[in-house]
């Protein structure tokens, strides 16, 4: 596995929701693939897959505003509505008209909103354990969202312990300590702690309710990849989502939880390469 400390996003974009950190890998003349992360994660979850895809594709990764290395500030709009707009902005900034898009967790909702509401065009869309169908949000997630100001006051050590255990629960195989700490690190310190509870407080199911009925009108190749052992979003949602999108194919990834890109990078990469190279 790649050294976590080597993952750096060197480029910036001043989006409407805050400065975005992003990076591009691979040959500039290759077909573009954009990777979207979920919550409470960052582009780091794609580290191995991004570098493997960059052998044959031009790969774009980014941290959403309020996440990872991107800007975090008081009063920031980090909702799914805002992130969908930011993604559309980024695609225009990158001058990408029809990239392939691979999106995990909340990133799935962001990619779907950008496509269905902002007119972002993709050549293909891979959805990996996405937040896309109601109902969503665990009891813990709802509890924190309803009492975010209280949780913001936790002593730093207790806050980090909570975040650490929450992130580890997304993995079926278990995370290496240094990998887990890299995922926890953006949520440390006063700014990071406030940002963690801010993004949960702004997570509202209405942002997927607004687009769920539009899935039947999606007209591009779509694959749904899902960790067979996902305890965050039941695998039944994988079947439901694949059935809701015309022509979508479903691939379950065995022995993987919600954090498929880290639990099973090789099987997921194989599934993505098969999808990206298949005839349209």
TrEMBL record:
A Pfam family the protein falls into: Abhydrolase_6
Keywords: Hydrolase
GO molecular function: hydrolase activity
Domain of life: Bacteria
Hydrolase among keywords: yes
Name of this chain's protein: Alpha/beta fold hydrolase
Source organism of the structure: Streptomyces ochraceiscleroticus
Xref: InterPro entries: AB_hydrolase_1, AB_hydrolase_fold, AB_hydrolase_sf, Epox_hydrolase-like
Occurrences of domain AB hydrolase-1 (ranges): 33-270
The keyword Hydrolase appears for this protein: yes
């Amino acid at each position: 596995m790649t050294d976590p400390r080597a993952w750096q996003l060197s480029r910036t974009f001043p989006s409407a929701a805050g400065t975005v950190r992003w990076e591009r890998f691979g040959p500039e003349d290759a077909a573009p693939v954009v990777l979207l992360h979920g919550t409470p994660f960052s582009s780091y979850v794609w580290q191995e897959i991004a570098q493997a895809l960059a052998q044959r594709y031009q790969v774009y990764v980014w941290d959403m505003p309020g996440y990872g290395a991107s800007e975090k500030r008081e009063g920031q709009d980090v909702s799914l509505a805002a992130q969908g707009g930011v993604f559309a902005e980024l695609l225009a900034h990158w001058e990408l008209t029809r990239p392939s898009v691979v999106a995990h967790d909340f990133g799935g909702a962001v990619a779907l909103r950008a496509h269905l509401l902002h007119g972002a065009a993709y050549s293909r869309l891979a959805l990996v354990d996405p937040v896309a169908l109601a109902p969503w949000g665990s009891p813990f997630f709802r509890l924190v969202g309803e009492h975010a100001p209280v949780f913001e006051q936790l002593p730093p050590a207790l806050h980090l312990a909570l975040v650490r255990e929450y992130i580890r629960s997304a993995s079926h195989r278990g995370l290496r300590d240094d990998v887990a700490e890299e995922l926890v690190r953006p949520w440390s310190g006063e700014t990071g702690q406030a940002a963690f509870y801010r993004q949960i407080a702004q997570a509202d199911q209405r942002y997927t309710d607004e687009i769920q009925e539009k899935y039947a009108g999606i007209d591009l190749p779509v694959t749904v990849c899902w960790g067979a052992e996902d305890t965050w979003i039941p695998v039944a949602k994988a079947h439901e989502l694949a059935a809701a999108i015309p022509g979508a194919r479903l691939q379950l990834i065995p022995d993987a939880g919600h954090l498929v890109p880290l639990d099973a990078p090789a099987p997921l990469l194989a599934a993505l390469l098969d999808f990206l190279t298949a005839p349209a």
